[in-house]
Specification:
Helices cover 37% and strands 17% of the residues. It is α/β, with parallel strands linked by helices. The chain has a single domain, classed as Glycoside hydrolase/deacetylase (TIM Barrel).
């Protein structure tokens, strides 16, 4: 039986608790681009209640830009910020008897590390300093995946149910028309094709094949809970088992 992880980015200021029932793992914002102690507590508590695996979702320290832009920051300061973010969420998780399982960079940090070896190495150094057993979740086929594999950090290749791809396998930028998939049936179909290794249609109409171990849903996508329900139902209808990749 084919198995896939279904994950969601949570704790970012949206009404995301309904999504937890449909996923097997979550990546929780750690306060740099969004979130605070209260949202981390709420997210971890709900994950623990539903036996959903918890990971960290750190970013550039940029609440004003929601972590979606690169900011002027030294390597030392970024490394320290990532360490602080991981420590903050780990402390919350510990209070709930939960251990962090993975780290998934957010926004600009995620997208830039997909093609930047030096930034990838910095992120991985911060992860290993905190807990070398943590996995890193990264865009399938990205530089962060390859650098992680060389550095001994387990890498989990990620695909997206609610985002369109470019022909080269990168995500279409959010500001591009059609980059978001908001129709539940369309998101469910893309998720299913990713899960079974079939090509998906890129934004320009060409086929792109993306090998993934986990599929992401965004809580800030319009109709996120309906999308999550449709994705889960379609995967199960096709006989695909939903289970965490980073447990």
């Amino acid at each position: 039986m084919r198995t896939i992880d279904l994950n969601a980015d949570v704790g970012e200021g949206h009404d995301d608790l309904p999504i937890f029932a449909f996923v097997s793992s979550v990546s929780v914002a750690c306060g740099a681009h969004a979130g605070d102690d209260e949202t981390m507590e709420r997210s971890v508590a709900e994950a623990a209640r539903l036996d959903v695996v918890v990971g960290a979702h750190p970013s550039y320290p940029d609440r004003e830009g929601y972590g979606r832009r690169r900011i002027a920051i030294s390597d030392d300061d970024l490394r320290a910020s990532l360490g602080d973010q991981l420590a903050a969420l780990a402390a919350v998780a510990s209070r709930h008897g939960v251990r962090l399982a993975h780290v998934k960079p957010h926004g600009a940090l995620y997208n830039e590390a997909a093609g930047d070896e030096a930034l990838s190495a910095l992120i991985l150094e911060a992860i290993k300093r905190h807990d070398p057993s943590l996995a890193v979740v990264a865009l399938a086929g990205s530089t962060l995946i390859s650098v992680a594999e060389r550095s001994g950090v387990r890498a989990i290749a990620e695909g997206f149910a609610d985002r369109r791809y470019l022909a080269d396998g990168r995500l279409a930028p959010r500001e591009v028309d059609g980059a978001l998939i908001v129709e539940p049936a369309a998101a469910a179909e893309q998720a299913a094709r990713l899960a079974i290794g079939e090509p998906v249609e890129s934004l320009d109409g060409s086929d792109v094949r993306v090998g993934v171990e986990t599929i992401c849903l965004h809580a800030d996508t319009p109709g996120a809970a309906r999308i999550a329900g449709a994705v889960r139902s379609e995967l199960e209808r096709r006989g695909i088992r939903i289970a965490p990749a980073s447990a």
